[in-house]
Structure formats: structure tokens, C-alpha cells
Amino acid sequence: MSSSDQTVKKSYTADDYSTENTANLCPGCGHLLIVRALRQALAELQIPPEKINLIAGIGCSGKTVAEINSNGLHTLHGCAAPVAMGAQLANPEQENILISGDGDSWAIGSGKMIALLRTNLDLLYICENNGTYGLTRGQLSPTTKMDSPTRCGTVSDIPPVDGIGIALVSGATYVARGFSGRQKLLIEQIKAGILHRGLAYLEVFSPCRTFNDHEESHHSYRYCQRHATDFPRISVVDVEADYPTDRQLDPEFKFEGKKTNFGLKFDNLNEIPGYDPTDRNLALKTWEDYWTEQVIPLGLLYIDDSARAHHQRFYGESDSYIADLRPEETRPSQSDFSTILEQFK
Amino acid sequence: MHSPTVNNLQIEVATTNGDYSVSTNDTLANGLFKMGLDVTTRRIFPSNIKGAPSRYIIRLSDCSLMAPNNRTDIAVLLIEELAGEVLDRTVSGGVIVYDSTSSLGEKLTAATDGRTGSEEFYREDCVYYPVPLSQLAATNFSDSRLKRIMRNVIYVGVLSQLLGIKPAAIREVFKENFSDKGKKVINSNFTALKIGRNYARQQFAPPANYQLKEITHKTPRYFMRGNDATALGTVMGGCTYASWYPITPATLHGENLERYAPRYPLIVEQGENEDSCLGRALGAAWAGARASVSTSGPGLSNMAEFLGFSSFAEIPVVIFNIQRMGPATGLPTHTKQGDLLASLYLSHDESPRIILTPSTVEQLYDYSWKAFNIAARSQMPVVILSDMELGLSFYTIAELNYPEQPIDPGKILSEEELGKISDFERYRDLDGDGICYRSLPGKGPTYVTRGAYHDREANLSEKPADCSQKIERLFKKVQTAADSGQLPSPVLEEPDGAEVGIIGFGSSIYAIQEAVGLLREQDIQVALFDLPAISPLPTAELQEFIDRYKTIFVVEQNYTGQLQKIIQTEFAVENKLQGIRRYDGDYLTAQYISRYCRECLEQ
Fold it and tell me: How distant is the Cα of B490 from the closest Cα of chain A, in angstroms?
């Protein structure tokens, strides 16, 4: 447990986001690379550990909550979404990050995840997709590819769930695909997802060394490296006040995130002719093509930084949140009480 | 004829649901309440939106009885399917108002004229009042929807004239209900009321055996449903986050909260299913809100895993369970008290929780606001067990008080307090009462809250000593709550000479109170124990009560005697307990209880 003297600290390094605990994951696990990227991203954004809520489901992905110095909440299988929704609404000043896996999200948690995605709740949702159930020793996951056998030889004969497609049609306002093996991009994707004011869905291909890194797997390091293809790659950059805002014309644009001095820079938008990451229909069509080709596009597929964040439906522009109320402020006054009772007379 | 009964009768309307009569009957009941009378209502309706047989009971009592009666004095018959059963329930000398311009009306008129073929609808000891309700509505109103609504208002006018219900009281209710709909709507209702009154005045002499007299009260009285009281208690308990999923009969509680939300610091959300609702509430509570959910049986089952999580991760939450008839879909619109054991043991392995069992509308309000303090103090889920009868029926109640306890946030350390501590541990039992100090995310040190076993510092632990200490401490908190003085006390009524006691809870209490009176008239003195909670049980009071009487009847609305089982597990009761149970979905009445008591005692 870390003491609260962190609040007086001036600057944070990646080490400040590590703990003395271990998630006990296997050596080489892709999830550990996500942990590393997450720590680095948090350090680059200089978010104090106590300002971070890390809300996780159950599985190998959820276990990583032990390794990030933050307010962790390790919930139930498939159930991180509603818990994160309540936590974020009670105190939107915290940076809420939801950690889930492919089974946790798209098997047991699918209904809850869709309910979350349609809210534009201001949080980063990282789905650590390894295409297998690692914690129960390698069973089929909802994202296992059809011809990829499990440890005991089971081959799925039904198509995998398309988490990115679901996120796009469900209303996520930031949709990105990362890979544990591409740290630099992943760090930028995490940073942008945190800065994004709204629901950021970041699906990360994160190979399971023990059960799903074999030759026929579509979730192996090797397969991902070989089939990786470029989506718009992004970097989070400092921006000046007069930064160009026409996204069609300029690959760099001022990004209406939570911190005004950050912008998004597209490194390769000119290499993808005609692509506009703010056009959802185009994003859907492009994604559909990639999906059928079974390649692993990496980058930012879609962003809408103009949508209202979910908590603003309740709070508007006010920053007086229910978690900050003094106890006596939570109860109506004696005169309010009398007014309420009038309707029952 | 004897002198008329005053302010003491039961009205029963037999109709089809979805015909707008519920709001009309609510208005009639509210008008009677505004005359200063003691009024309670019951709805008997199927799980269906339009077109199925449905009844509405309004009971008036001159001695504050709030249970339904098994005898009806004034019947309003609008459909044939229910005519036979309502007539069977109607007392000798009863009043039967019916729509003479309906097929049932023709049969009833034939029967009263002594023509053959419709004898089943004829009671020579009752007085029949044929009113061309549909025709009067059709002649006076043009819109087809209005015709159907105003047919109902016209019978209210007829009853108003026959029984002496002040039209001003009913008009006041119309004004309150339709203040946002404009004068035109209000005036239509006024017109229909007048049509009914005029028709009855011109055609009939009022029944000689029933009279209503206005009563002026010096202290305020309120007319509300149980789900109004629990919602009000939620707001007064300082709830700042509530989540719900539509389910009969709990929906009204959630909708009430939706109406409060814009005016108070309260966020209300309809979730995507019940366990998500509880998940959202727990997320909010973890982050610092005072949170609750409301549901009924199937939703409670759905919440099982999160209920255990709440208990184990020590995140406070209040769960309102408005019980209905189960299992599975059961019958959503019928009442039962079948969720005692489910509420007590729901979720795998062992996870303690507090379960309160309010009995009256006043208690529903009181226990509801107290529940938020108890949950916050105990860092534990608190279940409020209401039921469909309490939730959806109107009751006349005395003054409700502003909460006498301040909001108790429980053991939450502020940033300032935490700043002075160098060795904070989330799960250290500093005070020896099982309850550890919390910090809130963003306002203290970092650690992981989890549903897995952990050590005092909140680190995952599989050490046997950590595991046993954790579970022992969780259960210790239930005893701490029992000793805290925060829990409601049992309400006891113990007349001199009583040798028999009754233990009950929830909606049964109104019927039990009336049964105690009926038995007293037969020289059987009965003591009453109104149980406030099943977890923790009020052990000392309950043991004394059981010891004091020869026979103890445990009244509950389920088949297996769940409360009796809970008591027998805790106490030596020497075969003293006798179960009085109802589990057919119908409302418990005083007659049902008193008959059973008498038969048992005579054996």
C-alpha cells in the first residue's frame, strides 16, 4: 500500500505506477506488456496514482490490476462495466480505466459491455484480447478464430465475436486497435484514450504465451507481427492554441480532450488515401474489409471528440459531484421534506 | 333496520384492467381520505395491460383498520366474469351499483325484475342500483377514449351521491392530479362527477344502512403507498445514486425516485438488468456515493453474485426487494413473502447481510432512511423486504417525522485524517467491532478492493489465517449492528391475560392487528410481536416473547414457513410454534388468521 505522500510529488515516472504485488501471470504474457505501456502512458500524462481508478473484471486481464499503483477494484466476471459506470458517475474527476479480456467482455459480459458502450461514459476501456481462456487453461474464447485449435484440440466452428465492430455500432466515440508487441503505438493509444472525453474502446491483441501462441493461432506474437497492417497511427502531442482544426486537410489536429494542451497527430494519414477517422460510416466499412481479410490493423479507427460525456447528462457543466457531498448535504432539508409530504395530504 | 354503520364499509369495483378505472378508483379513495376517513385500497389484477378481469377494493374503517376485508358492502359491477364472486362476498343489505347499459346490466335488470334465467345474479337481500353508465358517458362525451374514462367518473358520482361522499373532496383530487393537463380535462371530470350525482339524486333514495361523516383531524395525515414510503425514505436516507430495472411490483419505487432526482442530489439510472443495477450501485458506493437498488424476486435472484461481492468487498448498498409471488416468473401482480431465506442466503458460500422487515407504511419510510446509515456504518448490504401488498396499496397514515438521526457516513477517513496516518490499512479492525476504516478513491492511499481473500493491507492472500479472520470479522459486523442501537426495535402489543402470541412481519401485520381485535371479541387475548429484522434477529426480545406465551403463532405468506425455520434455528422453542401461512397470492385477512387461531386453540 502506498501512502498519500504521492500528492506532493512533482513528477511521476513509470516506476511510480508499479506495486510490490504481482499478478502472477506467465512469463512472456502479452498482458504484462500492456501493464508496462499503461504505466508509461500514465507517467507521460503525469496523472497521480490516487487519481486513477482501475476497475477490472475476472480473468488473466483482470489480475493485472494488482500490478498498477492505483485505486483498484477487482470485480466479478463480466461485470466491470456496470461497476465502472457507477464509479465514474459518482466521481467523474477520477480517471477511470476498465480492464477486461475477450471472454470477460464478449462472452459473459457482452450485454453489460454494450450497455456501457452506448453511454459515452468518460473512461478508457481496454479489452485485452488473447483469444483464449488462460486462467482456466486454454478453452475457446468468443474471439478465438474458427480454424485455431485450443490446447485440448477443440476447434471453434462458429465465427468469432467482433469487438471493434460492436464498439463502433454501439456508440463508442474512440475506437482503436493495439498490439502488446507495438509498445510505442500502444502507449500513445492509451494516452489518447485517457485524454478522450467520452468512451474510448481500445482492443489490444495480447498473446497468451502458454495456451494460444502456437503456429495455428491468430492471436500469436508471430501472427500479429506478420499480419499487422496500418490504420491511422496516432501520437499525442503538445499543441499550440492556434493549431489547425480542419482534420481533412491536416494530419495533425487540435483534439478536444480533457486537457487542452494536448492534440492528436496522425503519423501516416497520407498513406491511407481518403481515410477520415471522424467518419463513422467510413470506419465501419473499412473495418468490415479488414475483418474479412483477417489481417490485424493497428491504429485509431474512429474518433468523435464532440459528443457529450455521459456524466454531463446529470451534472451539466457543474463540477459538484455526489462523491464530494458532505454527509448533511445528501439529505433534503426540513422544509423540502414538508414540501414533499404535501403531495400525500 | 338498525342504525346505519358510519365510516365503516368496503367498496369493491369489478372491471377489466386497462379501462382507466384504476386512476378513477385511486381518486375515489383519495377523496374519501380527504374527508378525514381511514382509507386503504387493494388492487387484485392480472399481469396484463388491457382487457382482463380486475378488482379494486376500498376499505373504510372507523378504527384505523388497514387490511382488506373478506366482506364487501358496496359493489360496483362492470363486467360479468366477476359478478358472481363479488355478489358472494357482498353482505346482506349490501349495495350493488351496475351499468344497466351493458350485457351484464341487462341480466341484472332481468334478475331484479324476477325474470327467469338470471337468478345467479340475484340477491334479494341486497339493494340494486341500475345506472346507464355507458349510455350517460356516450351521450355527454364525444371522444371515444373520454367516453370510457368518464363512465368510471360517473359511477364515482353515483357513489358520491348515494354514500354522501363530499364532491368537493373528489374535485380537489382531480385538480391535484390534472393540474398539468389543463382546465379542460379537469372540467370534463367535474362534469362527469355531476352527471353521476344528478342521476343518482333523481332516481334513487340513498341506502339507509350506510353513512359517511366527515372527520376533522388536528394533526396531519397522509395517504400513500408502500413504494411511495420506501422512495421517500430513500431520499431522506441521503441516497445519492439509485439504479433500477423495471419489474412489477417494484417499478413504482424506481419511478418515484426518477421524479425526485431533478430536485435533489440524486442520480437515478435505469440499468440494463438487475445485476448490472447492483453493480452500478456498488461502483458508485465504492467511489463515495450512498447507493441503492430496487427490485422484486426475479431481480433479486439476478443480483446474487453482486450481493455476495457487496458483503465480501465491504461496499455498502441498500437493496429494496418488493416481494412478489414466485418462483421463476411466478405471478408478478400477486403478493407473497417468499424471499426470506433467499434474501438471507443468496449468493454462493457465506456472506452476511442485514435484512429489515418493515410492516407498516410508517415503518417502510423509517427503516428505509435508517437502512442507508446502517449500510454505511456496517459496510454491508442491507436488504429491505417489502411486498407487493404493501408496495402498491394506499394506506392512511399518521405524521411522518424528519429523520431523528443525522446522516452517518460510517467509518470513512478524510484526506486530512489520512494525511496524519502513516500506517493506514484498509482491513485492520482497529476498534474491535469488525468494522474497518475506509478511504475513498482519489481521497486517500491506493490499494485494491476485491472479491478475493486478502490480508489487512488489502493484498491478495491465500493464507488460512487471513481467510478465517476475514470471514469471522464479516460476521462479527452483524452482531455489531445488532448492538449498535441503529437497528429498528420490535413493536410489541401485550394485553393482560394473553396466553397466546403472534409473530409476524411485513404486510401481514395489518391483518394480524385486526385479527387480534376479532379474537379479543371472542375473549381470546393475543400478544403481538412485530418483527423488525430477520438478520440480525432481535434475539433477547424474541426469546422473552417466546418464553412468555404457551403458544406462538408465526404468520407468514409462504408455504414452508421460512420465518418459523429461521426462529427455530436460533431458539429453543419446544414445539411452541404454529405456522399460519398463506401462499395462494391472495391478500391475508384478519378473518383468515383469527379462524385458524381459534381452531388451533380449540383442539
Answer: 26
Q: Which of B223, B282, B457 sits opposite A83 (nearest CB)?
A: B282
Q: What is the pLDDT of residue A260?
A: 60
Beta strands in B108-202, from DSSP E residues, in sequence order: 127-131
Please indicate whether, in this complex, the C-beta atoms of B289 and A88 are within 8 angstroms of each other. no
State how far residue B110 is from chain A, nearest Cα, in angstroms.
44
Q: What pLDDT is attached to residue A233?
A: 82
Q: Which of A86, A314, A332 sits opposite B283 (nearest CB)?
A: A86
> Does residue A190 have a pLDDT over 60?
yes
Query: CA of B577 to nearest chain A CA: how many angstroms apart?
Result: 40
Select the residue of A49, A84, A324 nearest B446 (Cβ to Cβ): A49
Winning range, highest mean pLDDT, from A72-81, A276-285, B13-22: A72-81
Q: What is the pLDDT of residue A243?
A: 43
Q: Which of B428, B446, B457, B459 to mutate to test the interface with A (most CBs of A within 10 A)?
A: B446
Residues of A in contact with B457 (CB under 8 A): 1
Chain B environment of A66 (Cβ under 8 Å): 448, 460
Q: Where are the domains of chain A?
A: 11-315
CATH code for the part of the protein at B5-211: 3.40.920.10
* Nearest-neighbour CA in chain B from A185: distance (Å): 28
Cβ-contact B150, B192 below 8 angstroms? yes
Query: What confidence category does residue A259 fall into, taking pLDDT thresholds of 50, 70 and 90?
Result: low
pLDDT tops 80 at residue A332: yes
- Determine the residue of chain B that is closest to A71 in CA distance: B446
- Rounded Cα distance between B150 and B174, Å, is 13
Q: What pLDDT does B486 receive?
A: 94
Write down the H helix ranges in B346-496: 361-378, 388-392, 415-419, 464-483
Contact yes or no for A1 and B447 at CB 8 A: yes
Q: Residue A6: is its pLDDT beyond 90?
A: no
Q: Distance (Å) from the C-alpha of residue A237 to the closest C-alpha of chain B?
A: 27
Please list the rounded mean pLDDT of every run of 10 residues in chain B (603 residues): 86 94 96 98 92 95 95 96 95 96 92 82 93 97 94 98 97 95 95 98 96 96 98 98 98 98 96 98 98 98 98 98 97 97 98 98 98 98 98 96 98 95 95 98 96 97 98 98 96 96 98 97 97 97 96 98 95 89 96 96 88
Q: What is the DSSP letter of A25?
A: P
| Torsion, CA A135, CA A137, CA A143, CA A147, rounded to 10 | 170
Cell of residue A201, nine digits: 474502446
Q: Under an 8 A CB cutoff, do A323 and B286 touch?
A: no
Whether CATH 3.40.50.300 fits B491-602: no
Mean pLDDT of A225-254: 65
β-partners of residue A201 are: A125, A175
Q: The whole model's pTM is what? A: 0.96
The confidence score (pLDDT) of residue A244 equals: 46
Q: Name residue A282's amino acid.
A: L
A–B interface: beta-carbon pairs under 8 A: 206
Q: Read off φ and ψ for residue B43, nearest 5 degrees.
A: -110, 135
Substitution target from B448, B453, B454, B456 for chain A, most A beta carbons within 10 A: B448
Fold for the domain defined by B223-397 = Rossmann fold (3.40.50)
Residues of B in contact with A85 (CB under 8 A): 269, 279-280, 283
**What CATH number matches the domain at A11-315, 3.40.50.970, 3.30.420.40, 3.30.479.10, 3.40.1190.10?**
3.40.50.970
CA angle A279, A281, A282 (to 5 degrees): 65
**What is the location of CATH 3.40.920.10 in chain B?**
5-211
Cα gap A127→A162, rounded to integer Å: 12
Cis, peptide link before residue B298, omega less than 30° from 0:
no
Task: Tell if the CB–CB gap between A327 and B238 is shorter than 8 Å.
Answer: yes
- B546: which 3 cell numbers? 417466546
